[in-house]
Amino acid sequence: MRRESRSAKRRPVVSRLISGFSLSLLLAASCAQAASITSITPLGQAHVPYLTQFQGTTIGGLSGLSWSAEQQHFVAISDDRSERQPARFYTFTVQLFNGRLTDASVQWQRFTTLLDRDGKPYAENSLDPEGIALTGSDRVYVSSEGDGIRQIAPFINGYDLQGRWQQSLPMPTTFWPASVFDRLNQGIRNNDAFESLTVTPDRTTLYSSTETALKQDGEESTQTHGSPARILQYALADGRLLHQYRYDIDPVIPPTGTSASGGSIGLADMLALDNQGTLLALERTYVKGAGNRIRLYEVSLAGATDINTLKSIRGNQQIVPTSKRLVADLADDLNVPLDNFEGLALGPRLADGQYLLLLISDDNFSDKQRTLIAGFAVTILP
């Protein structure tokens, strides 16, 4: 979404990484008790230079992440709307050097072009890819925000690993953008739809969310109030939309030490931590002249009201939203250098029993922003 020298190479500490397959086994086995993040420690960052060229494409606009335990690599979706090159995602690997993530840690492997129903690369401005989620060895899901101005509906599509279209998940008309000539004030806000995408460890459930409130549900966040987004829950076995839940986004809080007015905040990505509805949410704030604030929240769907049948939730006081707990403010709590972080993925288990968590920033193909890949060691219980 658009919001406004390399380290010396050292011997990689390969022993620090254990088979990523243990991630699925451990989290899927923890079915009797919800997962919880009990610690998070920064491991450093890799910087991808502006307009890096790779196999005839420009690396940039990286907005979503996912981890393949089978193949031991990450994938990142570019939000290029087929304007520079056809819509695509990238595959890369990560090695830690002496337990740290550096510029040399990231190795790009290949890119994959997304193909539409007709087997052709997507036409320019026909989609806005933002989220990505792998389900194993045969399927990758991609979410598109659509375009509220051009009246292009958002979507969540499934593709094979060669990028060929396989299915489209159902999208209620509740989310469709109203025509600019229509008096109905409904649907997604432009550039504020499906940024997030994640699949549960047992690979049976997919979650996505709007970045902020639908027009009929409420207002966007300001410095005085938050915004009610919607979390969507799909069954991957048959593609049904099972549930929707209200998620309350924070008010806009400028970065510490600044007092700028205005700004925006959105639910930029989510990560399923277990099979019981525990998610890690990334809320990203941007205030012009002040910069970003990035917060990670642990979210629980337990006890939240299912709003799947409600076309509007504006003013409905009977709805119980999802609960959330602050895990970390990346700057205030962890002193992490910030940029436009939009994606996150839980990678392999580390030798000390923790997991590698990656965050990625979207440079919007702008020389005023950076593509950063930030690493963290996280402890997840049980």
UniProtKB/TrEMBL annotation:
Sorted UniProt keywords: Signal
Record has Signal as a keyword: yes
Species of origin: Proteobacteria bacterium 228
Pfam families: Phytase-like (PF13449)
Superkingdom in the source lineage: Bacteria
TM helices/strands, residue ranges: none
Keyword field contains Signal: yes
Record-annotated Phytase-like domain positions: 57-365
Region forming the signal peptide: 1-34
InterPro entries recorded: Phytase-like_dom (IPR027372)
Protein name in the entry: PEP-CTERM sorting domain-containing protein
